[in-house]
Amino acid sequence: MNEFSLIKQFFQPFPLHHSSTVFGIGDDAACVEIPSGKQLVVSTDTLVSGVHFLPEWKPYDIAYRSVAVAVSDIAAMGAEASSLTLALTLPDLCPQWLTLFTQGLKDALHVYQIDLIGGDTTRGPLSITLTVMGMVAAGQAVRRNGAQAEDVIFISGQLGGAALAIDDLKKNQLQEPDRVAVMEHLLRPKARLDLAHLLGKYASSAIDISDGLSADLNHICTASKVGATLIQQSIPIHPLVHQYLADKAIDLALCGGDDYELCFTVPAKQLSLFQDELNKAHLLCYPIGIIDETMGLRMKTEKDEYKILTPKGYSHFS
Ligand code: ADP
Ligand code: MG
User: Fold this and answer.
1) In the chain, is it the N or the C terminus that has fewer CB atoms within a 10 Å radius of its CB?
2) Please, which residues have CB less than 5 A from ligand 2, an ion?
3) Handedness of CA 209, 214, 218, 220 (dihedral sign)
4) Beta strand pairing call for 152-155 and 115-123
């Protein structure tokens, strides 16, 4: 098999879900329709074997997780995901591996209703680059630079589950059902596209938590030239993190990444409308603090003391 027959066998038969795809794989480039009044939102993620996933993980999981991670950036912009391209570098051509990989890819694309519209296939150390496209009402993309003093900081779900799974890959101390539960967070993060529409309507800024709450919230604060105060008791932490790593729980929530929940800010005067719509949509988000004028991150602890937070999270070159 060469790369052309590989593409034909593994990537040509992908079903198309999205109305914006005019045509996908098979030409020199794909063609995408942008409805009038909409803008294109584009994001690229590279996942390197041994860095973002382990080569011994199931190929199905590697593919599924890669899609979720990539789509999460589109959700954080308040946009609807529509299509993606896949640049795949493979050490060798293993049909069994590719069959399972494309199954994971297909299932994730089905969950998010997006189309694989192109890509590139090369030989080298295993790595996966996904470029995801999405649409947003013109001018409505939610950026990192819109947070203002008095805005309420929200998080879209519990933190620390994925970090506990990574910790357990080294220590191997979780009981089986608990390991399965936290590995689910790591391998099947949920890109929060379900919130994208409400973010577009109400959020003044947003980011997805890939590196850790403190590091990612700090990106919002820096871009918006503001600071933030978090309330320790309000930060939702996965119950298994409390159970297994009680004394490190808050650190895992602040500095462990990979949960792909969204952190966003809502102006105080929009709060009740936002909460009403969340309730109607049966969605739960947690208010965890307030944006303030003073730069930097702080946390009000359970003892009502204020602690300075140093933004810490994953960084490739430090
Ligand atoms: P070219 O040489 O013109 O770049 P290729 O032979 O690399 O074209 O690719 C042929 C078609 O297959 C293109 O439509 C391309 O987007 C698609 N393609 C190649 N590799 C992948 C992949 N890993 N996933 C999805 N589509 C792919
Ligand atoms: Mg070409």
Assistant:
1) C
2) 28
3) positive
4) unpaired
Spell out the alpha helix ranges (H) of 154-212: 161-171, 176-187, 196-202
State if residue 81 touches ligand 1 by the CB under 6 angstroms criterion.
no
Closest CA to 35 of 116, 138, 110, 109: 138
- The DSSP annotation for 4-57 comes to HHHIIIIITT-----TTEEE-BTBSS-EE---TTEEEEEEEEEEEBTTTB-TTS
CA of 17 to the centre of ligand 2 (A): 25
Cα distance between residue 267 and residue 252, in whole Å: 28
Give the list of residues 6+ apart from residue 57 with CB closer than 8 angstroms, or none. 187
- CA-25 nearest atom, ligand 1: 14
- pTM (predicted TM-score): 0.94
Task: Decide whether any atom of ligand 1 lies within 6 Å of the 130 Cβ.
Answer: no
Q: Is the CB of 28 under 6 A from ligand 1?
A: yes
| Lookup result for tokens 């009044």 | 37
| Ligand 2: centre distance to CA 28 (Å) | 4
- The encoded tokens of residue 161 equal 């589950």
| Ligand 1 close to Cβ of residue 27 (< 6 A) | yes
Print pLDDT tens along the chain (318 aa). Answer: 788 899 999 998 898 989 999 999 999 999 999 999 999 999 999 999 999 999 999 999 999 999 999 999 999 999 999 999 999 999 999 999 999 999 999 999 999 999 999 999 999 999 999 999 999 999 999 999 999 999 999 999 999 999 999 999 999 999 999 999 999 999 999 999 999 999 999 999 999 999 999 999 999 999 999 999 999 999 999 999 999 999 999 999 999 989 999 999 999 999 999 999 999 999 999 999 999 999 999 999 999 999 999 988 766 665
**What are 47's two structure tokens?**
């996942």
DSSP structure string for 287-311: EEEEEESS-EEEEE-TTS-EEEEPP
